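Replying to the earlier thread about multi-chain prediction with a worked example.

Input:
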Amino acid sequence: MRASVLSDWLAQRLDRGNGQPIYRQLHRLLQQAILSRELPPGSKVPSSRLLAQELGIGRNTVTQVYEQLVLEGYVSSATGRGTFVADSAPDEIVGVPDAEAPAARPEPAPLQARRALSTRGARLIAGAGVSKRQWGAFMPGVPDVTKFPARVWSRLHNKYWRRLRPDLLTYAPGGGLASLRHALADYLRTSRSVRCTPEQIIITTGIHQSVDLAVRLLSDPGDVIWTEDPCYWGVRSVLHVSGLKSRPIAVDEEGINPSADDLAQPPKLMLVTPSHQYPLGMVMSLARRRMLLEYARQNQCWIIEDDYDSEYRYGSRPLASLQGLDTSGQVIYVGSFGKTLFPGLRIGYLVVPEALAESFATASAELYREGQLLQQAMLAEFIAEGHFTSHIRKMRTLYGQRRQTLLDAAAHRYGDALPAVGGDAGLHLVMQLPDGSDDRRVAAAALERNIVVRPLSGYYAQPGLAPSGLLIGYACVPDEEIAPAFNTLADAIDATLPEFA
Amino acid sequence: MRASVLSDWLAQRLDRGNGQPIYRQLHRLLQQAILSRELPPGSKVPSSRLLAQELGIGRNTVTQVYEQLVLEGYVSSATGRGTFVADSAPDEIVGVPDAEAPAARPEPAPLQARRALSTRGARLIAGAGVSKRQWGAFMPGVPDVTKFPARVWSRLHNKYWRRLRPDLLTYAPGGGLASLRHALADYLRTSRSVRCTPEQIIITTGIHQSVDLAVRLLSDPGDVIWTEDPCYWGVRSVLHVSGLKSRPIAVDEEGINPSADDLAQPPKLMLVTPSHQYPLGMVMSLARRRMLLEYARQNQCWIIEDDYDSEYRYGSRPLASLQGLDTSGQVIYVGSFGKTLFPGLRIGYLVVPEALAESFATASAELYREGQLLQQAMLAEFIAEGHFTSHIRKMRTLYGQRRQTLLDAAAHRYGDALPAVGGDAGLHLVMQLPDGSDDRRVAAAALERNIVVRPLSGYYAQPGLAPSGLLIGYACVPDEEIAPAFNTLADAIDATLPEFA
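Result:
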């Protein structure tokens, strides 16, 4: 839809008789047109005077709606040149307001809303990718929590609560419980070739807090961070709200692949997923690892290595971590127990260079006022008693089978027509959709059938130019439900892309 | 000490024979001189050329030390005018480096350290107030966790782990578990006159995360926030790292007391403790509450109400919350279970105006990727079954007795010479020390005797001009240990302030 036909489109949809204020209807319709890309990024919207005239409504109403959209980050206005759809509009299907559906509760008054959120707050909300659904086929990134050894966990819980230790119930000293840091240092050394002392390990509540801490300690507002393109949407919000500018760097089959132009402007930080790129799944080559480390050393940048899902590989053995190759103390390694045990546990960790260990521990206590030491003590014992590695082994076998079941179901329905990539590791794979097809519409159609998948394009910096595909998480789906759920998903694909039906 | 005698002072203390590099000795001595206020804020330090000459060391060494101190926020340098001690130097005794003590591990090389922390990171570390000690007499702000009803808690834990519910083990939808939000809405309405629906309650990990979320959603870098002077040091770090400028506002016996000059410059936010001022303990008068609310309404500021320790009052009944008086949706109410149950639990909450509820829930999920729903389910049931209110009742009686035991011990030793204030509520009281006495030295002397108290001056924006006193937490000290521990503290006071011996 070109902007010039916008007023017709709006006029057909505005409904004076449905009891909703015109202000609110117009606001939602414009949001919808922008989120659905019907009003593409960069396009100009009509002047408030013109639009008010063509719709036969007050100019003040239009002005207020435009101001609200500016605050929310949907459009930006340049004095004297007009109002334009923002370049990076919010890019997730979840949370798209439905102009037709009646609202569950009254909308805040325009005046109140206009002064409500700060610029960074409005941008955060407009770009939020988080989903209300966190369980069910085919939720990516969620492990099968029903297989967690609950009895062992309860036994440990009862043991620690039977004899109360006050030091485990009060605030944590910075960095977390010593026994957990020791257990982790051992585990990471043997399984991931991470070289560190226990003091270099900082316990956090997960990757979000780990990245938040690293970014706040190591960068200032306006600093540039390289992110892989595509990358995990959740971390983008954490980076932006701390004032960082992210520069999306393309990936190829060897991982992050900075161009000469990129290399000419060294960033302050880079955030990479060497073990298997998120979400596409390729492993960063050794040559690329060496290049990155040398570049970081020469240009004094920090590398944040997100070793996401490295425990789950179904074919070849993983390469050692980037941290293990680092000889100049420039890699911050982050990991979590969210995918190996259960997400709700909220325990993650950083491994920081020795020179930074004390600052990170202090800052963590100062900023987050940590606790949960009793849970950390349980986890340390869980690891020391061998339950952690045996649980991972068990789940690796199970997930490998589920992955194969999913691949079989896909091949049975589509043959080679919709190839899957990135399935050598992790808890999801990516099914490619035909070029030019709208993966967001497919995901929305699947959600209507109670199937959660995520559109691949939403992980790219410019969703409009991104490849089309679906992230399909198989880990939390019981074996016997995989094929039926895939068929339901396929019905949604076929209904949305009729050329495949 | 004037800056002009600095080189003599340094020359006496630098020790070429002790095996520590001169760079490091000089760095620590200067830090010490600044932290101890011997080099007062704003004073000029000698040029690197002059200091190098007078100490007979290399000028490069001095230059590097100055650069390091700039990065750490101790001094700032103005081109052409020289180098000056920063206005707001780090103000906590904890973490003051000891120039004499040998370091536990090797210091990072100057080059590495120089590029290590960002400006905001260095400032955070330099100003960090967090203590390594979190348990023992007289730790302020820590409840008696040994009285927590561990059996009830274990029973609830076992109940939820016996029949695994996957939705409680995965990520949380924004805002937290519905049952806990319902239980809290009921509790806050009856006990604190907070008026809200469950949807207006956002579960967090505590006051730090609550304030972080509010500040990021409602303000932008450079915005001004009013803080009470004195106030809780921990929140100051959270505010600063998000780019806020805090304007300290004096308090009187009616609570925060903005001057005409303050009122002429409306802030974006204000952070207040109306129930009992932290750490001094006065209750904000009704007139002051009405004035604040009206001022906020007229100037469209947000008020963050920290209802800290409101459950523990030993005399009169508390006034209703500020939130309950707010008719225009400008108050963000924050509270936590850290003091009523146990700090390590890490569950707190915000109550936000209706118009902001959805944005706060989304932002919380997006920024922090919450979990711990099983623990939230346990807590909701703990509240619903009445254990929460009965535990508070029990602890209020216990803490009231301990408070009296402490007051008796103080009166027995000092009579009226060192009066205590702020003891009508909460878990600590403030013992006033004579004007001009150094409460930081007293606290350090107490710590040598294994007694933790906090110097009152550290809670003020300008510790050098602040009243002298000690925060003494009595809640976590067993009854029979209070008098002996106070006598040990008194020995430290007498040794430091001989006029009282």
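The two ends of chain B are 28 Å apart (CA to CA).

Feel free to reuse this layout for your own posts.
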